[in-house]
Model the fold of this input.
Amino acid sequence: MTLFATSSQAAIFADDDARRFILENKKQTETNFSKIESSIEEQKKELDRIVRNQLDFQSENQNLTQKINKIHGDIEQQSFNLEQIKKRQTEFYQDLDSRLTKIENSIKEEKKIASEKEEQENQLFQDGLNKFKENKIKEASWSFSSFVQKYPNSNKLPNALFWLGNSFYALGNCEKALNPYDRVVKQYPSFDKASEAMLTISNCYQELNKEKQSKETLENLIREYPNTDAAKEAKTRLSKQTPKSKSADNKKK
Done:
């Protein structure tokens, strides 16, 4: 009896230990599982973080790649634009150089033509003077008349008109001489031979029996060119004309 009770007691204690062991193992297992689950969660979070970082890195890398590509594109566009500018500048300077060359050639040609024209003017004018000095008055008048017609804008025109008038006057043709002399006086009043032209105009009027016009011309000459030799000659002629007029009046009386 006693032995049975002792055996039963031992069995009960053994069962309690086993239950306790099982519970402790279960608790430990649950604890371990909980730790494992926590570790897994942490690892999941870490993995998520790594993935997000990787995605962010990829996104940043993609953005960076896009920026780099854009910069490359901008550089290529700017390089293209620069090449176009250089090309336009080259074309511009080539065109400018071509234009300048044409202008320079044109100027040279104009100078050459002007020089040839001036040489022809001088030759024709000098030919007239030489003929006048050689007493070939008619030929001289042809040269001066040709000069006046060919070179109306020449700076030698007033001189040519003066000598054309001299030629006609020397030929005894006062009516023809009056026109070139008159042009000298009216168109070129500052010409140094204008006073001489006026004096000869007065002579022509005198020879054409136009006393009034002759006297008026002398008076105008004295008034407009008072300090010239022609004006002195005009005063002398007027002083000689006045006594004649008075004597003529006395005879009438």
Summary: The longest helix spans residues 2-133.
